[in-house]
């Protein structure tokens, strides 16, 4: 059986609040037969390893990833207004296969000043990818299969839950897809409201 190499939370230049603590406990208590495993302890980054472009594995540059009031947050307030393509990823330290991943997420605040336009309210979960330790120092994104999470921009359609494939391709219905992203048919979620993702 193939194993998932690494579960990664991708963060572009956005604010992403992920509240796994409350919802995971609810899921565990309401469906014990499904054997839910809580990945985030609600207190700190134990079990997770950051890898930010240009910095060594494990270095949480500018306190990018943090836990406040039981919520896992990504924040750029210590970047002094300069993002400098410091794309960050948070890797879970165990491997999985044949699983369902559930999390609640939301985007809040404004884009950091020099963040790329495409990265506005753009994050994701790499459900299959390379390990943090195998990434190059200046590598932007891990080779992976990503569930792309997008927030609406207040004008037009912007579906979330898309499939993106940095550094690789996928085969669906016996056909090779070389597109970087394949859009889902989800609705657009504007504003700072949260959304429960189950994948």
Features:
199 residues; mainly beta; 7-stranded antiparallel beta sheet; 5-stranded antiparallel beta sheet; 1 helix; 14 strands; 6% helix; globular; disordered N terminus
Molecular structure report:
This protein is mostly beta strands. Helices cover 6% and strands 31% of the residues. The chain is built from 1 helix and 14 strands. The strands form 3 sheets. Strands 3-6-1-8-9-10-13 form a 7-stranded antiparallel β-sheet, with no helix packed on it. The protein has a 5-stranded antiparallel β-sheet with strand order 4-5-2-7-14, covered by helices on one side. The two termini are 19 Å apart. The N terminus is likely disordered.
Mean pLDDT score: 82
What is the count of β-strands?
A: 14
State the shape: globular
Uncertain regions: pLDDT < 50 for 5+ in a row? 1-7, 10-31
Total separate domains: 1
Helix content: under 10%
Rg, rounded, reads: 16 Å
Distance between the ends: 19 Å
Strand proportion, as a percent range, falls in 25-35%
Instruction: Give the strand order, joined by hyphens, for the main sheet.
Output: 3-6-1-8-9-10-13
Largest sheet: 7 strands, antiparallel
- Give the topology string: H per helix, E per strand: EEHEEEEEEEEEEEE
The assigned structural class equals mainly beta
- How many helices? 1
